[in-house]
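Annotated sample (chain length 253).
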Amino acid sequence: MTETVSAEIPVSADSRPRHVAIIMDGNNRWAKARRLKGVAGHKAGVDAVKSVVETCAREGVEVLTLFAFSSENWRRPKDEVSALMKLFVFALEREVKKLHRNEIRLRIIGDRSAFTPTLQELMANAEQLTRNNTRMTLVIAANYGGHWDIVQATRQVAEKVKQGLLQPSDITDDLIQQHLSIGDLPLPDLMIRTAGEQRISNFMLWHLAYTELYFSPVFWPDFKQDEMHKALQSYAGRQRRFGQTDDQITATS
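Output written by the structure step:
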């Protein structure tokens, strides 16, 4: 998918989302409820990731973006962060080949500079291996924040203005979007957050302007095929107006 994606507000949408974004919340609470260490919840969450990826691929979702590690998550206890990094390495070493066999492209967004050279190399290798796959694009947001994404895009545009390649009057919504981490992919149609929290937590702030939101009470490790289908069914039953009236929607359908 290398099409140019416009930031313009769409006027219609299909009953099946092209792009699903998920905040995977509740791993620690899932583990605590079972009197386990937090890392056990994160390991259990990997199984949910596999199930949701498989379900979305079967249902024809074009892009699935998972919020794996936010720029704020570095504030967590050092042993938990260390365990998460090891889990990330494990997943990149063991799961990427499965993605490749299933024709799924992997992209990783976020500030990679904070990760170890080994982890950065694994990320680059995984993206290189799967770069030509077209069945679905799986985006992993790691050390990612919506503020960071907008700032880095703005800096790129400002540098082009400084070099005389752009005039301030050339700056548009589309131009900013083209410089975002996944500005070439469709904007999210559906954003899911698990574990009962109802906020977006600095996730894809630009992208979610007209996204349908779905909040599930289920902890992430238990959010598997059936729960994913519930979210997709909820989306299919909604009418997306994009600023229009019901009559206008009916007239164009």
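Annotation: The longest strand covers residues 136-144.
Annotation: The first helix runs from residue 27 to 33.
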